[in-house]
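Here comes an entry:

___
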Amino acid sequence: MRGKEVRLIFLAVSLVILMISASFAEDLKTSVDLTAVGMGARPIALGGAYTGIADDASAIFTNPAGLGNQNTLSFVSMSTQILTCVDYQLAGFSYPTQYGTFGLGYIAASTPAGDYIHMVGSTTVEGGAMNYTNQMLILSYGGNFSDQARATFIGKDNVKYFGLGANVKLLSQGLSGSIRTAPSASGLTADIGAIYAINDRVTVGAAVQNLGGSLSWSTGEREKLPMLLKLGGAYKALDNVTVALDTDFDLDGGRDMVAHSGVEWQVIQYLALRAGIDQKAASVDDATTGSATSYTAGVGLMFQGFRFDYAYRQDPNYSEFSTHYFSLCFTGPEIGGPAKTENDTISQSKTENDTISQSKTENNNISQYEKLLEKNAEVAKTDSQ
């Protein structure tokens, strides 16, 4: 079975799962989406505007379609502390194959939840400390569908890259510690995404996050994650300057539209500076929603495939809650990667033919030169006689 067919089957199965899960959607309470907290120090430093970039393992958490354009192994991790008491960790790994790029992501947030107290008769007994933990495991896939895009309505001259991707997210929440009957929850949801690179400078992307599914608690209650439509774009204004802009739409209709923007300046090969403006949805009161605007900044240091990223996100309301983010990213050598598109094969064939043609021309020139030397030698020999 060809790689193109495998990619299409994989995405078709993913979309069927998404439609089935969406068909069971109900009017449920909304839970916390861990990906909204942060998806890597580089995207955070860009104000969260990453849907149209998604060019490393952080694509797992932002737009899985970006994985299809990656032909190297990639790894990203991040750690921080939020609100001075929530430990937040993230890790993502992507691996390219001839059938597309597969990814695995993990996010965890934990915080102390007080002490467990229970009654033994009429006596209050200390049961020990409790922790609240929220975890997410992400299975990700991104494929290169550039040839299919060139053969359809877009046209072969207007596509540098076109990719599609999907995530399946396994959710887990609950209390842990010495509590004997700790409530817990588990669930399933999914994402889909697309990226379209028009040329070397302009890229646009779209992703729907948390499409269907729900979180079921051991107490019998159910919750859902907020379903968002993210539209974004990136423009390479200069060879070393990229500007990005994202807009988030709440498909559940409960929150206002918010925007994210950022700029990245690759100062030298080993140093990048970043800054952004990040909007987050916020509740003003029980009946009113709005948004809060934060300013972000960061730096990236690159050396031999490793990249250290730092980001700072300013809290607009409480300065003591402003957060520092630290990420380590690794991009390895090419290991095969996605199957070459037909255009890539044609281009390579033309290059090889040009090389062969050039070689023949050079050989012909050498042959003619050698014949001319032989003729001159014969003339010189005749003259000497």
Q: What stands out?
A: DSSP finds five helices and 17 strands in the chain. The chain has two domains: 3-339, 342-385. Confidence is low (pLDDT under 50) at residues 19-25, 337-342, 344-349.
